[in-house]
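HUMAN: Spend a minute on the protein record below and explain its fold to me.
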Amino acid sequence: MMALCVRKSRDFMINRFKSKMGSLGLIHFSSCSSSLTRKSPVLVPFPASFAQNHRIPEREFGNSPAHFRFCSRRFESGKAETLYDEGDANQVLDLPDGKVKFTPEMRFISESTKERESCYRVLDDNGKKIMSSNYVEVSREVAVKMYTDMVMLQTMDTIFYEAQRQGRISFYLTTVGEEAINIASAAALTFDDIVLPQYREPGVLIWRGFTVQEFANQCFSNKADYGKGRQMPIHYGSNKHNYFTVASTVASQLPHAVGVAYSLKMDRKDACVVTYVGDGGTSEGDFHAALNFAAVTEAPVIFICRNNGWAISTPTSDQFRSDGVVVKGRAYGIRSIRVDGNDALAMYSAVYAAREMAISEQRPILIEALTYRVGHHSTSDDSTKYRPVDEIELWKVERDPVTRFRKWIERNGWWSVEAEIEARNSARKQILHAIQEAEKVEKPPVADMFTDVYDCTPSNLVEQEKRLRETIKRHPQDYPSDVPV
């Protein structure tokens, strides 16, 4: 009799709870799918690891060209499947963010998996396509432009670096060894996509049409520089090319990128945001805040981490104990992939697919591009003090991304020795001419240091400008003579 009363009471409470909860008791999100149909056709789908995400309990990759079909976007959240019975190990706890099963076993999550996450690659070190590799087809026109832009970037780095050593500019930073990440990622985007760079992505601007003269004007801080000489060299920016101005503060661009992506989402734009960061930047709080921010808001943003092994002189072994950067995406609920950053075809394919998912599914994507910083961190650094020279030479000679991609287009019959000579000679002539022209242009006036921030200049800045002018007049030998006062 007592047991019957308890059971009736229990059933009454359950029904009462259901009536009070109503539609809140069970939340479902419909399944979604994406198809890569923009521009170039896709041969076959990417490996299943590309779509791994702890929010996706089931994944199905069809055999049709790049067909992706994903199930529910979130963990299903609803009423408890079983009520508490003493000794019941299968109880499910219903939380606001989903259901969690109980277990009588005390088990800690391992700090790492038995095997490292694999790295997506299409071309081997000799530029040969790997059998059964899945990638996005690239036309001859696109492939040739990708290569010539990599040649331009490589040549520009060499000459501008030499110009700094000659004392003609104050600072420079190269992208040697990372040309494929720059150019291939840019090629996979559209011009409507907004880029928030770190500082080692000038190749994105080259792809979008930023001229060599514009690069030179910025590095020489002349009057034609869009930043009016206020920034250090290599801190490029261009509204016309949807490229935010470079900031030296490491990783500060990442939360900004999520905000920009969220605005695109609110405006229902057919575009995404792409932001870049180095492996050292993942140690900044902004990286973690940005990933969480992006996951929660489901912002269409692609995070591309250039894991080049070194944060200036700090190796990745001193940066983190996790399996690189790619695994950090899963912790925040972000779909992620690890890519060979020295493989232009792999980078192009991964970014192309990531863009489609980011826009069609309104979700963030994390791409870890494995590469190596062949050059010094900047002209202020001597990397031979903290890493062996033979290691640098190995990556420079045997794993050069530009050479690898050249071999591939040569095998396709799209490139020749004559074309190579012409491309390199042309790039060198253009850059040398741009430097000569940039040096002729006068510097911005002192007054430009105090404008473009306030509509009405505050009194403290007016006083600072006055004192600066007085100081220059008293000590002209300590100030550049070519800066108009």
About this structure: The first helix runs from residue 2 to 21.
